[in-house]
């Protein structure tokens, strides 16, 4: 069955680095917690339709419900200490569903938009923005982008999530660390770096400049 829906694709930023630093068991535990936060974030008629590793795909007949869900998921992941933030993409268009699988260019566009997003950032297409009826949302255009294998440029907007959390990011495993809690630090070249544990600090001390470029981004 083919129909028009709002679609959200959300991934954990730095998941590969975290897995490399802490191993598969830690990655599995983190993804399990992430899915708890996903389920906690669901608003209105939104539903999870696919999950691949740390990536989730959600759809809704109501774009405003999906925007609220995206904002809540962003907040919940930022509230967690020693966790990863999300990056997410929102789009609206036609999808074809068969045996629980989704097909169509709408899926591909949503994925490309998600991949444009940075840490704790929710990006949307103009198609999505145009169908959001709730005027309380704030969208800021960041320009028109040529997305891979998409014929026409897509105007991209950032959904304001009003993130007010003060966080540091571990340059080794990319996990976010709350500044209001005691954490492991190390000074290098006049800068203070923050770590989720001693293991990441020791990896950093062994070769700081292999990780410093990330922390400057």
Task: Walk me through what this model shows.
This protein has 217 residues and is α+β, with helices and mostly antiparallel strands. It folds into two domains: 2-159, Nucleotide cyclase, GGDEF domain (Alpha-Beta Plaits, 2-Layer Sandwich), CATH 3.30.70; 167-215, no CATH class. The chain contains seven helices and twelve strands. It has helices spanning 15-22, 24-41, 63-79, 105-116, 126-131, 198-206, 212-215; strands at 2-12, 47-52, 55-60, 86-98, 101-103, 121-125, 139-145, 154-159, 167-169, 176-178, 184-188, 191-195. The strands form three sheets. Strands 1, 2, 3, 4, 5, 6, 7 and 8 form an eight-stranded mixed beta sheet that branches. Strands 9-10 form a two-stranded antiparallel ribbon. Strand 4 (86-98) and strand 5 form a beta hairpin. Helix 1 (15-22) packs antiparallel against helix 2 (24-41) and helix 2 (24-41) packs across helix 3 (63-79).
Distinct helical segment count = 7
Distance between the termini: 43 Å
How many distinct folded domains?
Answer: 2
C-alpha Rg (nearest Å): 18 Å
pLDDT under 50 segments (min length 5)?
Answer: none
Q: What characterizes the major β-sheet?
A: 8 strands, mixed
Q: What's the CATH H-level homologous superfamily of the largest domain?
A: Nucleotide cyclase, GGDEF domain
Based on the structure given, which CATH architecture of the largest domain is correct? Answer: 2-Layer Sandwich
Q: Say what the CATH topology of the largest domain is.
A: Alpha-Beta Plaits
Q: Give the helix level as a range of percent.
A: 25-40%
Which sequence of SSEs, written as H and E, runs from N to C? EHHEEHEEHEHEEEEEEHH
Tell me the number of strands. 12
Strand content of the residues, in percent? Answer: 25-35%
């Amino acid at each position: 069955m083919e129909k028009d829906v709002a679609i959200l694709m959300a991934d954990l930023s730095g998941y590969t680095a975290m897995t490399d630093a802490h191993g598969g068991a830690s990655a599995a535990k983190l993804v399990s917690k992430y899915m708890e936060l996903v389920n906690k974030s669901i608003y209105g008629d939104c539903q999870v339709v696919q999950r691949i590793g740390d990536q989730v795909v959600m759809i809704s007949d109501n774009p405003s419900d999906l925007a609220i869900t995206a904002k809540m998921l962003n907040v919940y992941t930022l509230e967690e200490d020693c966790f990863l933030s999300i990056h997410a993409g929102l789009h609206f268009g036609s999808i074809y569903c068969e045996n629980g699988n989704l097909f169509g260019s709408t899926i591909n566009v949503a994925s490309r938009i998600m991949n444009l997003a940075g840490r704790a950032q929710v990006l949307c297409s103009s198609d999505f923005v145009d169908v959001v009826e709730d005027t309380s949302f704030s969208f800021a255009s960041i320009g028109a982008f040529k997305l891979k294998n998409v014929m026409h440029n897509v105007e991209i907007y950032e959904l304001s999530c009003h993130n007010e959390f003060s966080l540091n990011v571990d340059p080794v495993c990319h996990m976010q660390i709350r500044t209001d809690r005691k954490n492991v630090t190390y000074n290098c070249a006049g800068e203070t770096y923050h770590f989720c544990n001693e293991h990441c600090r020791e990896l950093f001390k062994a070769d700081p400049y292999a990780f410093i470029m990330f922390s400057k981004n």
